[in-house]
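Input chain follows. Return C-alpha cells only.
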Amino acid sequence: MVDSIITMDHNTPSTSSEPTPIRRRFGNILRKIRKVRGKSIYELAKDGQVDAGYISRLENAHRNPPSPRILQRFADALNVRADLLMMAAGYLEFDKSGRPLDEEEIVRRVEAELTQGHVSDGTAADSGITVKSRGDIQDVLRQLEDMKKNLMDALTEGPNHELPILGHIPAGFPVGVEENTVGKLSVEKTGLPNDPSLFAVKVTGDSLVGVGIIEGDYVILSPMLKNALDQGSVCAVRLDNDEVTLKRVFFAQDGVILRAANPEYKDIKRQTVSVIGKVVRLVRQFS
C-alpha cells in the first residue's frame, strides 16, 4: 500500500499549487467578499476554523476550493449565501433551466448580494437549489450526494467487482497488520469510486460501533481518496510506530486527532499520520 502524509493543514491537499481557472475564480470572489465585508484573513480564518495561510493560498489560486462544509462556515462568517460560494467553487454549475453558470453570471450574483443583500429576483431559486438559512446547507449537500450517486450509477452499471482482501484491521487499539491478500470480496460495483487500487479489509474490535462498524464487517478502502478527507472521515491510518488502526480523522490546530466512535477508547493525537485509504463502503455478511 502507498501511504499519504497528513499534516496540520485542515483541508484537502491539492496535487499541484499551479493556478487553474476555477481556483482563480474562487480566489477572486472570496477575496472580494471578504474585503467588502471588512474581514481580515485572520478573522475569516478564525471564524472559518481554518489556517490563515490556507485562506491566503485560496485567494491566490494555489489551492482547490474547499468542501461544502467549509464553504458553509465561510458563508456564515461573511454573511453571504452559501450557494453563491458553492457556485464560485464549481459545485453548482447550472441554473434551474439547465444553462451553465459562467464566471460572469456568478460574479453578477455575488455583486448583487453584496450591494443589495440579494440577487435581482430576490431568491436563490434560479440556481436550482435554495439556501435561505444556515441549516439549509444540509439540503444542498444531500442534493449533491444524490446527483453524485445518480451519475456514478450511470457510469458504473455492470457486474459485481471482486476486490482483494488484505488481511484485517483493528477498530480498537492500534496493532501491526500483515498486508497480505487473504481472499477476494465480491461487491456491487455501482457507487464505488473509479479507483483501480480499491481493496477490502476485515474489521476487528469495537471502537467504531457508534458509526455502525462492528467486528467482522468488511470495509472497502480507496487509496485514491486518501487526500480527499472531510472532518471525521473514517480511514485506515498508519501511526509513526508502524501500527495500523481504523479511526475517524479530525484536523486540529496542533496536529491530527484519531477518534473512535465508542467512549471506551481515548483519542489518539499525533503531529502527522499516514493515511492508507478512506472507507468508501461497509460490507456485512450474514451466514
